Amino acid sequence: MEEIPVKVAVRVRPLLSKEILHNQQVCVRLVQNANQVIIGKDHVFTFDFVFGENSTQEEVYAVCIKPLLVSLTEGYNALVFAYGQTGSGKTYTIGGEDSASVAADERGIIPRAIQELFHHISEHRNINFHVKVSYIEIYKEELRDLLDLETSMKDLHIREDEKGNTVIVGSKEFQVECADEVISLLESGNAARHTGTTQMNEHSSRSHAIFTISIHQKQSAEYQNAAQDSISSKFHFVDLAGSERLAKTGNTGERFKESVKINSGLFALGNVISALGDPKRKSAHIPYRDAKITRILKDSLGRNAKIVMITCISPSSLDFDESLNSLKYANRAKNIRNKPVVNYNPEKDRIDEMEPEIRLLQEALQSQQVSNQHLHDLNEEKGRISSLEEKLTRLQVQYFSYRNCVDEALLLLVDLNDDVSLRRSQRDRLQSWISMVQKVRKEALTVQETDTGTETSPVPHHITVLQQKRDLEKCQQVLAMNEELFSQKNHEVQILQNQTKALLQEKKEQQEFLKEAQETQRLQGYTSPPVLFLAQMTEFHIRRQIILSKLEDQDKVLHCHLPDQSDEEEDNTRCEEKTSYKCSINQTWTQNHASLCFLPDVSDMKHQVDKSGLSNKSALQTDTNTGEESDSLQNSHVINMQKLTNSELRLAKTEQKIRKLALNMKRKEELIKDLVRTGKDALSVSWQCSLKISQLEQEIEQAKTQLSETQKQLQEPDSKELRDIPEKVMLQKECQKKTEAAKLKVQKREARELAQKVAQLKHQLSQIEERLCEESEKK
Ligand SMILES: Nc1ncnc2c1ncn2[C@@H]1O[C@H](COP(=O)(O)OP(=O)(O)OP(=O)(O)O)[C@@H](O)[C@H]1O
Predict the structure, then answer these.
(1) What interface predicted TM-score (ipTM) does this complex get?
(2) How far apart are CA 8 and CA 64, in angstroms?
(3) Which of 78, 391, 433, 556 is the most buried (most CB within 10 A)?
(4) Do 138 and 254 reside in the same domain of the chain?
(5) 373 and 258 both lie in a single domain
(6) Ligand 1, residues 91, 138, 326: which to mutate, most atoms within 8 A of Cβ?
(7) Which pTM does this prediction carry?
(8) Interval 650-704: pLDDT, tens
């Protein structure tokens, strides 16, 4: 396999009108015969082709591209890429401009190659050509289909097939028939390409564009002989985005981002070119994967393609650095060596690849045919069976009708045999016929019995089968309906079960919630001061209740004796009084029972007790015959009543005390809260003060240092400047500063005092808190 180097051409564009206007100088010269470019004074480069400012598009095409197009038609892959600084003439050379605005002789490489290709096709009628085109751009390292803008960037992927050919999966390939069709596709792609205005170029391409023509050629059937195969080849036309010096272009925002991506892609391409141009490259790694452009060109660069690199440069001395860099870049590319081959038989290879698949398919087809035959046979068999079944049914019907006839004939002949006088021979024959029929019938019955295993039935067999079939169908229908019903019911049951589950869950949750609430209430009951107070109150009431009940019991004992010591009238009075007393006691009892939190009116009680006491006294006055026992009982009753009154009074007093204490506690709690708040405020004030103090201290320190410096300066006898007025002003300022510093000192002292006060306050506060705690503990 022959190794051929990459051909490198350099094209120097003429100075543009704006460059002439700015009187820019030319810094590039060409030595046409030697294919040399001299830039500046002493940078000389030799290339395969050099084109000066007067070179035409036709010239560039004829020299650089025509041989590639010939190679393409011979079955070789080809690649031309234009490299150079922004605004150096790449798009102009490649032909990526709007062709409507370009004169025919200014058309670039691509339209010329298209024309030539279709001219070639038209001249080779013996070959069947299939031409496809695609147009892709790499914008900010993302692929974009310029012929189908609806294709999302995410759907385009660079892949490598098993032969190492780069394939862009998802890109549209248009099958084309004539040059005009391709030109219009090219134009629509050019229009869709990302371009923008920069300081360096009014129509700057902001992306790398790859226009690809793929051809597949095969001898026409009439000219074909067995030895000839088909050929497939492709031609990439690559218009790279221009290299840009960010400082020079002044790009910002989106343009800046584009520049970064463009330069990184070009840098990756430069690295690939360097690696490929390195004589020790066999061991070196080729960094194709670093950028999309290098991944796409992987199968061409350094591999199976004939390559021409066109380096475009500006002649302006202002672009000297960029042009020199481009020439160095191109110089490296000269070292790349490729091994192009004619791409024969991709179809045959494909057929080879597909052979096992074809074999499998053939086998599958055969087995399909066999099974089809079987199916056919089966169908035939089925048809035969059904016709036989029909025949059988018909025969059975015939048989039964014949049997009926025979049965009837038998009966008739048996009668005739008995009644009619026949000749002996006739009678014998009849007799033998009858016995034969009987024998046949008997045999038939035995066969039927063994077949069915049942008693003989008068219904023909086929009719029974049909009937049973119908019954079976009905049963199946009923079964299906039942099943449907069953599934419905099942579903309903399922729903109900779910509902029950949900309700149970809800109930459980509610129970848990209730428990939690009860628990919280219980815990709160032990900790909250008002509840404690209530509990204490309740305790008091219970004790009071116990005392009252004891008194009542004693009272009952007392009243049991009273009726025996009075006459009837007095009895009534006493009874009335007794009832009123009892009622009053019972009333008190009921009141106490009704609400433990309610204190009974002490004055009421006293009044009732007095009343009972008086009534007892009057009873004692009317009955002079009362015994000592009754006296003592009455006395004890009065004493008890007094005791009760006393305890009621004490209880009322204690309750009042408790109320007062609770009120006091509440006030003190509020006081504590206030004090804490004040303490916090005082703390924040003191913090702010200390912050201010530290600031002031710093300022004082600064003032001090400045003062000492000024003093030093004043002490210097040689300092002439001191006598100057501005210097004096400065000194005055310094003095002012010193005064301010002194003031600050005073402020600082005040602040310190304030801080001390705050500390004292805090101390007092803590003492009060301690005292309050002690008091509350005592209470
Ligand atoms: N050989 C030439 N003869 C006359 N004019 C040229 C030539 N080369 C380039 N120009 C002009 O120079 C300008 C810039 O060219 P072009 O747009 O092709 O640059 P570019 O290298 O593609 O720039 P970019 O990288 O920014 O896209 C265009 O106006 C173009 O017409």
Answers:
(1) 0.98
(2) 9
(3) 78
(4) yes
(5) no
(6) 91
(7) 0.50
(8) 888 888 888 888 887 787 778 777 777 776 776 776 677 677 777 777 877 877 7
